[in-house]
Amino acid sequence: MPDWTRSSLLRGGLLLATLLLFLLGWGWIKGESARQPMPPVEAAVPPGLQAATFAGGCFWCMEPPFDHLEGVISTTSGYTGGKTKNPSYEEVSRGWTGHAEAVQVLFDPKKVSYEKLLFVFWRQIDPTAINRQFVDNGSQYRTAIFYHSEAQKKAALKSKAELEKLGKFKQPIVTEIVPAGEFYPAEDYHQNYYQKHPYKYKYYRFNSGRDQFLENIWGKDRPH
């Protein structure tokens, strides 16, 4: 075999091997994410507590308003509303999974009502935006209330009707009110991002335009 033929085959083999390693690294060949398996959060809520799930665009920005409420036990950033099992952040970000970035709130109803959580939720988002929130675009950034019971559904619908009556928004309110499904916690580096990386968080939040929009709509009535 001529030397130039061997050289061409060798180069071709190396290129193929590199491509295979790249695809395996992304999990495309197996159809799997490189993320370690993470089971969905089910309704295993401790006695006396309740769960509430909200989607309001970037989940980094949705944790702080609830964390600061007395009666809130914890907040968890994650993915819900889609069909893909155990999605990774990269998969959700592509907008192919059907999932939305969301935050799940564990709370004590004796100390804070679900209605109070709804009040805070509506004042963190642009409820008229379809498949986007501020600088983030795509169905993964849609707004939604994922109710865990008929009582939550009733309260959510009532709060939406009350918000419409306020007349704060010129466009229709498009926030979904749908049953809660499997909730997949996001990767560890997303949890409590505003506490782990305060400067990066503040930089992103300011440049997103979220606070400027909310101040313009709500002014002093906006919970911080």
| Alpha plus pi helix count | 8
Write the element-wise H/E pattern from the N-terminal end onward: HEHEHEHEEEHEEHHH
Name of the CATH class: Alpha Beta
Reading side by side through the largest sheet, how are the strands ordered? Answer: 7-6-1-3-2-8
Q: Name the CATH superfamily assignment.
A: Peptide methionine sulphoxide reductase MsrA
Q: What's the CATH topology label?
A: Peptide Methionine Sulfoxide Reductase, Chain A
Q: State mean pLDDT (0 to 100 scale).
A: 85
The secondary-structure class comes to alpha+beta
Question: Judging from the principal axes of the Cα atoms, what is the shape?
Answer: globular
- Report the sheet-strand fraction: 15-25%
Distance between the termini: 74 Å
Textual characterization of the structure:
The chain has 224 residues and is α+β, with helices and mostly antiparallel strands. It has a single domain, classed as Peptide methionine sulphoxide reductase MsrA (Peptide Methionine Sulfoxide Reductase, Chain A), CATH 3.30.1060.10. Helices cover 38% and strands 18% of the residues. It contains eight helices and eight strands.
